[in-house]
Amino acid sequence: MRKKTFAAAALLAAATLTLSACGSGDDAKSPVTVVGEDTSNKPATILDTPFEKPDLVLTDTQGKKYDLRAETKGRPTLIYFGYTHCPDVCPLTMNNLAVAKKSLSKADQAKLRVVFVTTDPARDTPSELGKWLKGIDPAFVGLTGDFATIQAGARTLGISIEPTHKDKKTGKVVSVHGTQVIAFSPKTDGGYVLYDEDATVDDYTKDLPKLIKGENP
Amino acid sequence: MKPGKCLALTGIAITGALTLAGCGSSGSGGSSGSAGSSRAELSVGASYMPRPVSADMAAGFLTITNRGGTKDELTSVTSDSAGDITMHRTDGGAMEEVSSFEVPAHGQLVFKSGGNHLMFEKLKRRPDQGDTITLKLKFAESGPLTVEMPVKSATYNPSTGH
């Protein structure tokens, strides 16, 4: 059923394209663009009502129990939900944070906690996660565990993830990542700033010194 | 089911009508269509690969521009550097493999971070910044194109160039 609707949309799109292709020459200067324009240039959103830190007790890359609230209490903390078999956004997000972190003083670097929670725990075992994070920043925390627990934790932050599943058409494994990094204040332990996936190294470099102090960027 | 079917029929009807009109005018216009040659004319730009975390997986981005008046379709991407290259579109946080992508007439097919991407698996080794990955793009109509894709830093941002 869904497939059919999609086919119809594709046909309609084809029809529109045919119009611009075969229409009069005056239309030729307005090329068809596949990707929409990005108008937002502010990747950080400060929340009026901060998120409570999720009560997640998971397993770290050493295979040890990691209680998120206890371990990151009073620390500036950035949390992201993703998976290691992700070619584009997940490594880019984590690498952006890793590069921006290097511009902090050593003391501030030691205060910061960056926590990567896998959305694909079946494939992201503690050792797989550890191997992947080592290629980005060995100080980053990687957490894995029961999917339902991770999903429930993500949901409290407004992040909706699905279990890894096989695509019915292609038979390929599909996983889902979150699209935001959430910054938690060392003063309140509340998640008060959201970064979307357009946030760059420069954005994080500019904001991290403020986030370390729990100030608004 | 009903609305879908209805929509499809409308689509077909419109396509038919336009094709008729388009081809009619180009036939009578003779050589007047200076910019709009009928064939797809493809070129590739803005290609790069952010340095991946490992040899297991990498992403690649590029833009295919079609200056011709006919659409084409990107049907496969191959490289000696990777065991497998697939094409994906991203929808929210989920990515979906696609077997082909349309390159619209007088338009572009854009692969960019956060959107459509090429996914490289089983690379021979982890590429370093400064390396070049040679790709072969195949199309439904046009001949194949070879692309020399530079490997940039892991955090490369094409809009700032660093």
Automatic annotation (TrEMBL), chain A:
<dbReference type="GO" id="GO:0046872">
    <property type="term" value="F:metal ion binding"/>
</dbReference>
<keyword id="KW-0732">Signal</keyword>
<comment type="similarity">
    <text>Belongs to the SCO1/2 family.</text>
</comment>
<feature type="binding site">
    <location>
        <position position="86"/>
    </location>
    <ligand>
        <name>Cu cation</name>
    </ligand>
</feature>
<dbReference type="InterPro" id="IPR036249">
    <property type="entry name" value="Thioredoxin-like_sf"/>
</dbReference>
<feature type="binding site">
    <location>
        <position position="90"/>
    </location>
    <ligand>
        <name>Cu cation</name>
    </ligand>
</feature>
<feature type="binding site">
    <location>
        <position position="177"/>
    </location>
    <ligand>
        <name>Cu cation</name>
    </ligand>
</feature>
<keyword id="KW-0186">Copper</keyword>
<protein>
    <submittedName>
        <fullName>SCO family protein</fullName>
    </submittedName>
</protein>
<dbReference type="InterPro" id="IPR003782">
    <property type="entry name" value="SCO1/SenC"/>
</dbReference>
<feature type="disulfide bond" description="Redox-active">
    <location>
        <begin position="86"/>
        <end position="90"/>
    </location>
</feature>
<keyword id="KW-0479">Metal-binding</keyword>
<dbReference type="InterPro" id="IPR013766">
    <property type="entry name" value="Thioredoxin_domain"/>
</dbReference>
<feature type="domain" description="Thioredoxin">
    <location>
        <begin position="47"/>
        <end position="213"/>
    </location>
</feature>
<feature type="signal peptide">
    <location>
        <begin position="1"/>
        <end position="21"/>
    </location>
</feature>
<dbReference type="Pfam" id="PF02630">
    <property type="entry name" value="SCO1-SenC"/>
</dbReference>
<keyword id="KW-1015">Disulfide bond</keyword>
TrEMBL record, chain B:
<dbReference type="Pfam" id="PF04314">
    <property type="entry name" value="PCuAC"/>
</dbReference>
<keyword id="KW-0732">Signal</keyword>
<dbReference type="InterPro" id="IPR036182">
    <property type="entry name" value="PCuAC_sf"/>
</dbReference>
<protein>
    <recommendedName>
        <fullName>Copper chaperone PCu(A)C</fullName>
    </recommendedName>
</protein>
<feature type="signal peptide">
    <location>
        <begin position="1"/>
        <end position="21"/>
    </location>
</feature>
<dbReference type="InterPro" id="IPR007410">
    <property type="entry name" value="LpqE-like"/>
</dbReference>
<dbReference type="InterPro" id="IPR058248">
    <property type="entry name" value="Lxx211020-like"/>
</dbReference>
